[in-house]
Amino acid sequence: MEKRSEKNRSNNKNKKPKKKMKKSTKIILLSLLGILVFVVGFGGFYLWNMTSGIKKTDISKSDMESSMDNNVKGKYSDIINIALFGVDRRAGDTGRSDATMFATIDKKHGKLKLTSIMRDSYVSIDGHGMDKLNHAYAFGGGALSIKTINQNFGLNITDYVAVDFGELVNIIDALGGVDIDVMKNAVSETNKYIDDVAKETKKTGAHISAPGMQHLTGVQAVGYCRIRYNDNDFARTDRQRDVLVAMFNKIKTTSPTKLPGIIKELSPYLETSLSTTDMIGLGTDVLQSGIGNIQQQILPIEGLDNCKGGIASNGVFYFKYDKDALKKRMQNYIFEDIDPKNK
């Protein structure tokens, strides 16, 4: 595989923001979905009436269990993993998973985790050979995606939640906005993206006049986290995390009586194999754990497990890696709480 050239990266800097939702925005919305999976118990008493808009799907639990490694099947009942899919869905289509994560409620080690799996990961998909991870959802929805994750990464997932992207601005506004410390070198670029988001959403987007800690609306916050060309990928990830953490903090401090409204805002864009009882049970588990922080991780990690991304002979970009080594790293992290960055 050949690495993408620096020339191509340089040319990308001159491109104008696209009108479609950026990958960074999608990842943050999916992360919020994960957070809501964790904290939904706060609104448990109201949830029965709030989830009527969620599309419920039935998947075979025994089929999901058959896709698990023998060394995790029937074990680790105190570690619950729920798949989270961010779907770019066209009318009449199943949709393609533009972002794949899973939420872990680890009662054994007292941890809450959100783990992203690179959507370009080169995986084996039942009936479809080797392909990108995100194609599994298009081929067979949440059920095939779960089987693919379990088979390739050694997990014990039996349920999923999927979100149809497009509503991050409204969700942030439903939270009442977020507080963000905007860096000086990000002000100008943020304003460019604010204009872009305002045009997309047909909402007003006031420019940011100065750096520093300030309260941002949905349009402003999404503009901030979309910046791509101002510095580097590490800084962009930091900004995305800033917005995510601000949303998490806002949810944690939101009155229980207001959370059902947020859930109702999300409901029309959600699909899940979880029953309402399941969701309340998950929330109860989190509440009883007393855990307040979420540990985030992205796998595979470039440079470990012989992982590297590049263009294959068919012209498609993939992340390829040592499958057995990565599976072991994933299992060590999720089930034994071993730092995934350990070599």
TrEMBL record:
InterPro entries: LytR/CpsA/Psr_CW_biosynth, LytR_CpsA_psr
Family the UniProt entry places it in: Belongs to the LytR/CpsA/Psr (LCP) family.
Domain of life: Bacteria
Pfam families referenced in this protein's UniProt entry, alphabetically: LytR_cpsA_psr
Limits of the Cell envelope-related transcriptional attenuator domain: 96-252
Keywords on record: Membrane, Transmembrane, Transmembrane helix
Span list, region Disordered: 1-20
Residue ranges crossing the lipid bilayer per the database entry: 27-48
Origin species: Clostridium cavendishii DSM 21758
Signal peptide bounds: none
Listed name of the protein: Transcriptional attenuator, LytR family
Lineage: Bacteria, Bacillati, Bacillota, Clostridia, Eubacteriales
Biased composition, class Basic residues, residue ranges: 10-20
Chain segments annotated as coiled-coil in the UniProt record: none
